[in-house]
Amino acid sequence: MIVAERKPLAEILDMVKECKKILVLACRGCVTVCSAGGEREAEILASLLRLGLKKNGRRAEVIEGSLVRQCDKEYIDAIDQWQGRYDAILSTACGVGVNFIANLRPADHVYPALNTTFLGGSAEQGVWREQCAGCGNCILHLTGGLCPVARCAKSLMNGPCGGSVNGRCEINQEVDCVWQMIYDRMGRLGRLEEMRIASPIRDWSASGHGGPRKQTRGDLTL
Amino acid sequence: MNFTPDIRLFSCHYTSQQSCTEAGNELQQLGFPENIRICRVPCTGKLQEITLLKAFEDGADGVYVVGCPADACHNIKGSQRAAKRVAAVKQALVELAVEPERVAMYHLDRGLHPEFINIAREMNERIRRLGPSPF
Fold first, then answer.
1. How large is the ipTM?
2. What local confidence, expressed as pLDDT, does residue A57 receive?
3. What is the pLDDT of residues B3-59, one digit of tens each?
4. Backbone torsions φ then ψ of B26, nearest 5 degrees
């Protein structure tokens, strides 16, 4: 899922300081699962906004709403139900949702309530870890399913590097060295010989360095 | 300053069970501040951040929660959960540049005993000293 976290309240309050009617718009997709921007978090944020704006001597009406997702046109169209009740949308979706609202509603002011942080999963209750970098060219079949692009601080294709000590990364003793994990796992799977093959210089053209990416499935287009 | 704070107490059913005996008069007789409104909940673990924030929106100058001892909650982890939610609201108050002492969590044994009254007075005095809510 896409993982995100709420921006500092001061930053959010500054964004909306001139707004008179604010729609705090939750997303029931990924950000609900990672407890950053679902209905519960939007309700809390709306309350904090009301308190913060009042404290700052500003009067604004803050309402809440939610969409199934904010990354599909048909759901964005549902914003019409709040027409006339807002002069700004504060989206608690990931950056994709904010972009979709901006793309599809040219007259609407939209602001991000969250910082979109990474593609990851729930490691334990209340803890999320990055697992995928969305680089566009998976090599997980070569690494026992563990991603060095996302999980190695240097995104090395041949590791571990000299900074790996006792299975930990040199950047932080709390960070596992994913190349050590790959080595251990490949050994358990009886695939250690595969690690003797040096990966060639990687082609990063699929990773977005050539501009925003787009994919089309001709069998699905109308 | 002549200020009577509006204080909301969310208390665990077990911790505050004596509060409704004798038509609720016992608390007053023991000196429980009259300006503290008690909301009893089945378990403080049921409380959400939004419940505490709404109390501030509703005009409370201070909000506090009284639940079971952290390691002796009737519902195992209820009061531990409540403490984390109170901490989250405390952090939000800091972000809003409001005194975090306006919200507090207390863990008390079940039943009515002097501590229940003492912390009510303590909270009352603290909020009185802080003055009216800036919200």
1. 0.93
2. 94
3. 999 999 999 888 776 665 556 677 888 889 999 999 999 999 999 999 999 999 999
4. -60, -40
Put simply, whether A205 touches B (Cβ < 8 Å) is no
Give the up-direction half-sphere exposure of residue A74: CA atoms within 13 A in the CB hemisphere: 1
Domain tally, chain A: 2
Alpha-carbon gap: A113 to the closest alpha carbon of chain B (Å): 15
Residues of A in contact with B49 (CB under 8 A): 44
| Touching B: A residues 37-96, CB under 8 Å | 40, 43-44, 47-48, 50-52, 54-55
Question: Pairing between strand A61-67 and A21-27?
Answer: parallel
For A174, the token pair is 């709390």
On whether both A80 and A187 belong to a single domain, the answer is: no
At A145-164, the pLDDT tens digits run: 999 999 999 999 999 999 99
**Residue A49's domain is classified under what CATH number?**
3.40.50
Same domain, A95 and A188: no
Q: Is A222 inside any structural domain?
A: no
Integer CA distances (angstroms), B3 to B53, B119, B129, in order: 22, 19, 9
CA distances from A2 to A79, B41, B74 (A): 22, 35, 37
CA distances B54 to A91, A175, B104, B133, Å, are 21, 39, 15, 13
Q: Does A7 share its domain with A101?
A: yes
Whether residue A109 sits in one domain with residue A152: no
Instruction: Retrieve residue B61's tokens.
Output: 């100058």
For domain B7-130, give the CATH number. 3.40.50
Q: Do A44 and B53 touch (CB under 8 A)?
A: yes
Q: What is the largest CA-CA distance in chain A?
A: 68
Taking only the tens place, the pLDDT of each residue in A187-221 is 999 999 999 999 999 989 899 888 899 999 999 99
Is A102 in CB contact (< 8 Å) with chain B?
Answer: no
